[in-house]
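Pilot study result, target chain (180 residues):
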Amino acid sequence: MNDEPIISWKAAGVALGLLLTLATFLVKPLGVSTQFVVTDAVVMHQIAPEAAEQNKYLAKYGTKSDWGIGYGWMLVFGMLIGGGITARIFRDKQPEIDKGSIPPMWQAEFGPSEVKRYSAAFTGGLLLLFGARLAGGCTSGHMISGISQLAVSSFIFGVTTFAVAIVAAKFIYRNQGDKS
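Predicted structure:
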């Protein structure tokens, strides 16, 4: 594995900024988690309109203007496809890990169970999506789009996200110490 970065963080930041500017100009600011709510609301307005209207959260998102939901899902699927393509292109730059192996740090803390690891990843993803909706947006919506628009709520979200991540990592891996 080559330790030299594929692209400098400065160039990546400029590229992200240009992409965000283009996306905001062409469509609207980037955000992913809202797409799930919009889809739920559109479906609910079709199958149970009274229930959807009585729910303040779904009533807010299920309006006729939200029914053109295709672009949002294009972003979601584009992230999956783009991530897969990028991983394939730069596979020789990835660390050598045996297929199906569990990282030593995880194994030392939680054991060798793949089921436990996948369950933790799935649960973490659900909690992340729930938290994103509770905060009114996900990391792409708040930290990329919101901060670039100088939204106070996005700055609060960003600081809180990093603070909680640091505390959680220190707690989860508290027994690891510095083994370098």
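One observation from the pilot: Residues 10 and 76 are 25 Å apart (CA to CA). A full batch analysis is planned for the follow-on phase.
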